[in-house]
Amino acid sequence: MSETPRSLPAKTRRKQLIKATIKCIAKNGLSGTTMADVTKLAGLSLGIVNLHFETKEKLLVETLRFITDEYRNGLDKIFFNENLSTEEKIRAHVAFDFSRAIADRNKLAVWFAFWGETKSRPTYHSICADYIDEIAQNLTQLFSILKNEQNYQSVDPELVCTCYTALSDGLWLALLLTPKSFKADDAKTIAMHYLKTQFPNNFTMT
Amino acid sequence: MSETPRSLPAKTRRKQLIKATIKCIAKNGLSGTTMADVTKLAGLSLGIVNLHFETKEKLLVETLRFITDEYRNGLDKIFFNENLSTEEKIRAHVAFDFSRAIADRNKLAVWFAFWGETKSRPTYHSICADYIDEIAQNLTQLFSILKNEQNYQSVDPELVCTCYTALSDGLWLALLLTPKSFKADDAKTIAMHYLKTQFPNNFTMT
Amino acid sequence: MSETPRSLPAKTRRKQLIKATIKCIAKNGLSGTTMADVTKLAGLSLGIVNLHFETKEKLLVETLRFITDEYRNGLDKIFFNENLSTEEKIRAHVAFDFSRAIADRNKLAVWFAFWGETKSRPTYHSICADYIDEIAQNLTQLFSILKNEQNYQSVDPELVCTCYTALSDGLWLALLLTPKSFKADDAKTIAMHYLKTQFPNNFTMT
Amino acid sequence: MSETPRSLPAKTRRKQLIKATIKCIAKNGLSGTTMADVTKLAGLSLGIVNLHFETKEKLLVETLRFITDEYRNGLDKIFFNENLSTEEKIRAHVAFDFSRAIADRNKLAVWFAFWGETKSRPTYHSICADYIDEIAQNLTQLFSILKNEQNYQSVDPELVCTCYTALSDGLWLALLLTPKSFKADDAKTIAMHYLKTQFPNNFTMT
DNA sequence: AATGAATGAGAATTCATTCAT
DNA sequence: AATGAATGAATTCTCATTCAT
Fold first, then answer.
1. B78 plus B134 within the same structural domain
2. Using one digit for the tens of pLDDT, what is the confidence trace for B34-83?
3. CB neighbours (10 Å) of residue C55?
4. What pLDDT does residue A66 have?
5. pLDDT average, residue stretch D64-91
6. Residues in chain C within 8 Å Cβ distance of D197
7. Domain termination site, one of B35, B54, B73
8. A49 and A35 in contact (C-beta within 8 Å)?
9. Which nucleotide comes closest to A46 if you measure CA to C1'?
10. C142 within a domain of the structure (yes/no)
11. Do residues B106 and B178 share a domain?
C-alpha cells in the first residue's frame, strides 16, 4: 500500500473520506456505518472526521450531496452539449443512467439508504427534492422538443418524463436487489423499450 | 382510549408491536428506531419486545415479513380469484399496488428503509428476493395469457413484467419523496399508461 | 460491603449519585470529574447517570442545587425557629456556618469548584445568586432587630451582613486551603470576634 | 491591529500566552479552556504552547504563578517602601487589594478557578500556600507594629490578619458573583470598616 | 405475561499533543 | 521559532438487553 502523505489539501481529504463513506454505507448500511469503519477504510485516524466535517451527520449529508452532484453534473453535461441532437441527448441520458459510474452497486446502495430515511430527515429530503426537480424539467423539455421535431401527436412529455424517471428508479432498485440475474444492460434495454413505445420512429437500434 | 388488557394472546401483542414498529420506522427511519420508541408508541413496557421477539433484529425481520406478506397475500387473492378475467386481474393488480393499504406512506417508508439496508443484510435480502420472484412469475403468466387471448404479437411478457414491476417500484418512490405533488391516482394513471402501450386494445377506460 | 438492591426509588438513586459526585469533585476537581469515576464510586453502572439525570451537566447542576438547598434549608430552620431569641438565631447561624455538615472539606471544595466556573456558566450563577439574596435579606433583618432591641446606635445592619457574609466565605476558603493549621473552631472564633466588635454587649461567651 | 512579528523573544511570547489564558479561563472556566481557544485568542498557532510551555498543565501553572507573583510583588513594594508609615502601608495594602489591576473580574475568575481545583491538585495548592504564608507574616507584622505604636491593648495582630485576609477573599468572591450590585469601592469601604473596629484612632477618613 | 430500573458494550465527539514542513 | 493537519486516548452519551419483582 502506498503511503499517504501526512498532510493534504482539505478538499482531497474530504473526497477521500466521502469515498470511504460510500463504500461503508454499501457494505454496512446507513445505520451500520460507524466513524471507526469509515476512517479505518480510508486509512486515517478516528479524529479526522471531526476535523473535516465536524459531525458524522454532516459527513453523511456531504456524501449524499456528492453522489447527487455527480449525477446532476453528468446529466447537465449532456443536456447542455450543443453537438448532440435531441434524440442523442435522450439516448445519452439513458446510457448515463445505467453507466458504470452511476449504476454502481455501491452508489445505488447509498441512494436507497438515504431515500429510506428521507421521510424522517428533512435535510436528506431537501437535497433530493432539489435535484429531482431540476432534472425533471430538463428531461421534460427534451421529450417536448422531440415530440415537436418529429410530430408525435399523442405524446404527453411531462407524463413520459415522470414515467421514465420512475422506471429508471425502479430499475436501479432491481440492480440493487437482484444483481445476479439483472444487469445494467438489461436495465438499459427495458428503459429503451419504454421510450420506443412513445417515440417509435426513434430509439430503434442499440 | 380503552385500556389494553394486561394479558393478551401472543399473536395480538406481536401485531400490536409490528404496527408500532412500522409507524416508528416511518417517523424516525430505521436507524432512528429504538425499542423505547416502539414500545412507548404501542403503550407497552420496554421489556415486552424481548418477551415476544427475543431481539430487536427479529422484530425488524418480522415487520418486513408482515408488510411483505400483506402485499403477497393481496396479490394472491387477485391471482387465484376465478371470477376475474385476465384483464380484470391485471387491472386489480394495479389498483392494489396503488391502494390505500399498500401505497400508504408509512409502509412505503418501511419498504425503502429495508431496501436501503438490503445489500448489507442477507436476511432482509432473502425475504425480499423470495416474494419478488413469486409475484414476477404470476404477473408474467397473466401477461402471457393476455397476449395469447388477444393475439398481441410483439409483446414480450417477461420484459413487460420486469418493466411494470420496476415502474411501480419507482412510482412508490415518487409517492414517498414528493407526496405533495404526486398522488396515488397519478401513479395509477402512469402505470395504466404503460400497460396501454403494450396492450392497446385493453386497459382503455379508467 | 452491603449489597445494594438492584432497584431503588428514583429519589434515593439520585441522592446516591449526587453524594458520589460531591466526593468526586472534592477529590478530582470539577474538570477532573468523569461519569466513570462518579458511578464507580457509587458502585453503580456507567449508564445510570443518563437514566436519572440525562446528562453530566444536569447532574452537576443538581449537585450544586443539593448543597445550596442543604445550606438554605438549614438557615431557614434557624431563622423561622420561634423558640430562639434574635441573638440566639445569629449565634446558631454562625454555628451552622462552621458545623460538621457545612464546613465539610468535600462540600467546601464543591462550593469553590462551582464558584470558580460561575462567570462562564450562567446556570451556576443563577442558582448561586438566588440563594445569596434570600439569605442576605434574612440575616440583615436579624442584625436590624438586634440593633433596635439592644439600642446599638452606629450599626449599619446591611453593611454588617455583607461583611459577615464575605468573612464567612473567606473563612471557608481558609478551611479549604489550609486545613492543617486552620480548623472550623478557629473560623468560628474569628467570625464571633467580628460580631463582638459590632454588638459588644452580645456574643460575649462561647 | 498590528501584525505580530513571526519571531519574538520567548519571554514576550510566554506573557502573551498567559494573558490569553487568563481571558480564556474567565470566559470559559478552567475546564472549558482549550489550547485551541487560548492560541486563537492570542492570535497564534496551535502548536506554540508546546513550544513555550511543553504541556497545557505547565501553562496553567505558569498562569497561576503569574497572577500570584503580580499580587505578591505589588504587596512587597508597599511593605518595603520606606517612605510610608505603618498606617499608610496598611491603607495602601487595602487600596491595592481592590485596585483595578487586582480586583479585575477576569483575574478574580482565575483565582477562584484555581482555588476550586486546589484540593485535587497539589501543585496549585503549593503555589497558593507559598504566597499566603509570606503575605500573612508581613501583614501580621504591620498590625503588630501599629498596635505597639498606637498602644492598642486588646488587639490580636495574628487574628486581625487572618480575619482581614478572609474578609478580602470573601469580598473578592462578592465582586465575582454579584458584579452588578457590588463594586470595588463597596468592597474597600467594608474592608476599612473592619479595620476601623480594630484601630479606631486610625483609618478614619477615606 | 408484563414491567421498567439497571447494565455495559459500542458509538460519537473532544482535545492535548505530535511532527513534517 | 512557528505552523496547523493529523493523531488517538479519553470521555460522554445511547440503547439493546437483562432480570428481579
1. yes
2. 999 999 999 999 999 999 999 999 999 999 999 999 999 999 999 999 99
3. 11
4. 97
5. 97
6. 194, 197-198
7. B54
8. yes
9. F8
10. yes
11. yes
Query: End of a domain among A54, A73, A97?
Result: A54
d(CA A30, CA B28): 13
Distances (CA, A) of A116 to B25, D28, D168: 9, 41, 65
Q: By the CB < 8 Å criterion, does C194 face chain D?
A: yes
Mean of pLDDT over chain C: 94
List all residues 6 or more positions away from D110 whose beta carbon is below 8 Å from its beta carbon: D22, D25, D26, D63, D64, D67
Q: Are B146 and B199 in contact (CB under 8 A)?
A: yes
CB contact under 8 A, D174 and C167: no
Indicate if the alpha-carbon torsion angle B9, B11, B17, B20 is positive or negative.
Answer: negative
Average the pLDDT over each of D5-19, D34-48, D172-186 and give the range with the smallest value: D5-19
Strand E nucleotides where any atom sits below 7 Å of a protein CB: 1-21
| Domain membership flag for residue B204 | no
Taking CB atoms and an 8 Å limit, are B30 and A128 in contact across chains?
no
Candidate from A114, A117, A167 with C-beta closest to B170: A167
Residue matched to cell numbers 409475484: B135
Chain centre to alpha carbon of residue C116: 15
Count of the separate structural domains present in chain B: 2
> C44 and C138 share a domain?
no
**Would the CB atoms of D115 and C174 count as touching at under 8 Å?**
no
Structural domain includes residue D92: yes
**What percentage of chain A exceeds 70 in pLDDT?**
96
**Taking CB atoms and an 8 Å limit, are B170 and A174 in contact across chains?**
no
Q: Read off the CATH number of the domain in which B12 is found.
A: 1.10.10.60
Query: For A43, left (φ over 0), alpha (ψ -120 to 50), or beta?
Result: left
Q: Does D132 touch chain C (CB under 8 A)?
A: yes
**Residue B90 belongs to some domain of the structure:** yes
Residues 101-130 in C contacting D (C-alpha not used; CB under 8 Å): 105, 109, 112-121, 125, 128-129
Q: Give pTM, 2 decimals.
A: 0.92
Domain co-membership, C49 together with C70: no
Domain CATH for B132: 1.10.357.10
Window D:4-63, CB contacts with C under 8 Å: 26-32
Query: A50 and A136 share a domain?
Result: no
Same-domain check for residues A183 and A114? yes
Assess whether pLDDT exceeds 90 at residue B163: yes
Same-domain pairing of A126 and A171: yes
DSSP string of C139-180, one letter each residue: HHHHHHHHHHHHT-SS--HHHHHHHHHHHHHHHHHHHHH-TT
Across the range D36-42, mean pLDDT stands at 96
Quick check: C163 and D165 CB within 8 A? no
Are A95 and A142 within one domain? yes
| Least Cα separation, residue A196 to chain B (angstroms) | 10
C203 CA, F5 C1': Å apart:
67
Range of D104's domain? 56-198
